[in-house]
Design brief:
single chain, 422 residues, alpha+beta, four-stranded antiparallel β-sheet
Length: 422
């Protein structure tokens, strides 16, 4: 019942955020909520905690191990009768403390600390990855919304043409074919609206998987409105790709793998332990040396760690290449889409004039209805191209922020948002 109340309270808070000021950035609000409640984030946080426990386990090898032991002889035979032992159960205590391990324990501690660092960077990287996925869905839904708006304007223009034709056909039945032709075009527009509505509903449904609260069409708006290219490239750019959280995580993993190779090598060296044993009848303190003179598995263990280190190095190179490529490609797409938008806006204005001219010429029988319908379709296609280019520009902006590891900074997201964490 308490869990239900917390969940319900969270939804109420999130709903109030989404329904707040008209100037609020809906996508940033969604990210601030989702990135503090998503299971991916909780999993990453749990991995950090698990890595810390592994580090403490490695440190514990420097501490003594004390065991309660007990033994009872079931059957025995000795040539010398003085070697016979009593069969009663004999409890005791055994303790063991490592005196020297040639650095094997310390190297294992270093490796676990580096793995802890890896999971800390992985936590930040997971937030960026999840933010990118949510933002992609949001922008896709926004594109569907804007496409529907374009199609609805086209539908209204088709209905206006149909209304004019209705009057003409009522007085001239010979032009019935033109009416049917216009009706077919109008039905095609309605079908496009239905298709976009379906894609919008599917995208919003997938988006709700991350938000836990249904996002509606009214909640969608341009999240990058007011973000200039200069601000984008100056405020959110990183000086070095090594500052990207994904790169940091992979760098830490590579260093952990290198330490794992060193730790595996040191396992082949001897260990010197202080051992003590005490029962009510016996006392024993001694020094033991453990050294695997022949252990075939150790050799393969070293090769395994070396292969893992090589794989981690290749992943780091790939991530470095991907970061650079994504950043450069995003900048190219932003620049080219800006140019394309100017051209499309001018083309829309010209196409709208053509439609109006053709309508006037159609009224005086200087243009056919097919000319008018074709001009109308061309106008709609250019308007759709405009929304598609705006969508591509937003995706390019998102890609650039992601390549810089700056989605959290753009979304004003803290590592933990206490007001939204339940």
């Amino acid at each position: 019942m308490l869990l239900y109340r917390h969940s319900f309270l969270g939804m109420l808070i999130f709903s109030s955020i989404v329904a707040s000021s008209a100037h609020a950035n809906r996508l940033q609000d969604i990210l601030q909520y989702s990135l503090n409640s998503a299971p991916e984030i909780h999993e990453a946080n749990a991995n950090i905690e698990a890595s810390r426990n592994r580090t403490e386990q490695a440190k514990s090898e420097h501490w003594p191990v004390v065991r309660a032991v007990g033994s009872s002889t079931v059957s025995q035979y000795h040539r010398d009768r003085s070697d016979y032992q009593q069969k009663r159960f004999t409890p005791g205590v055994k303790a063991e403390l490592n005196l020297y391990s040639f650095g094997a324990i310390d190297k294992n501690i270093e490796r676990n600390r580096k793995e802890e660092e890896f999971y800390q960077h992985k936590y930040t990287s997971t937030r960026e990855d999840l933010a990118y996925t949510i933002a992609q869905l949001y922008l896709r839904a926004l594109n569907m919304k804007e496409s529907i708006q374009v199609m609805k304007k086209s539908l209204a223009r088709h209905k206006a043409i149909m209304g004019n034709l209705g009057t003409i056909v009522a007085n001239d039945m010979g032009r019935q074919s033109e009416y049917v032709q216009a009706e077919a075009r109008m039905l095609s527009v309605e079908q496009n609206i239905n298709r976009y509505n379906k894609e919008l509903a599917v995208t919003l449904n997938t988006l709700s998987k991350y938000t836990k609260v249904r996002i509606t069409e009214k909640d969608l708006e341009n999240p990058f409105n007011g973000l200039s290219d200069n601000e984008l490239f100056n405020k959110y750019a990183i000086r070095d790709k090594a500052q990207n959280p994904t790169y940091k995580a992979q760098q830490a993993e590579l260093e952990a793998k290198q330490l794992a190779v060193e730790a595996e090598n040191k396992k082949e060296l001897p260990k010197v332990n202080l051992v003590g044993f005490a029962t009510q009848d016996d006392r024993y303190v001694g020094v033991e040396v453990n050294w695997d003179i022949l252990n075939r598995g150790n050799n393969y263990g070293i090769h395994e760690k070396a292969s893992e280190m090589s794989a981690a190095h290749q992943r780091l190179d790939r991530i470095s290449r991907d970061i650079e490529e994504t950043s450069q490609l995003a900048q190219i797409n932003i620049r080219e889409n800006r140019i394309q938008l100017k051209t499309l806006k001018a083309q829309i204005a010209s196409s709208a004039k053509v439609v109006n001219f053709y309508k006037l010429q159609f009224d005086i029988a200087r243009r056919s209805l097919l000319d008018v319908l074709n001009a109308e379709r061309e106008l709609s296609e250019v308007e759709l191209s405009l929304t598609g280019t705006e969508y591509a520009l937003r995706l390019a902006t998102l890609d650039y922020l992601y390549s810089q590891g700056a989605l959290s900074a753009w979304g004003n997201m803290q590592q933990e948002n206490k007001s939204l964490k339940f």
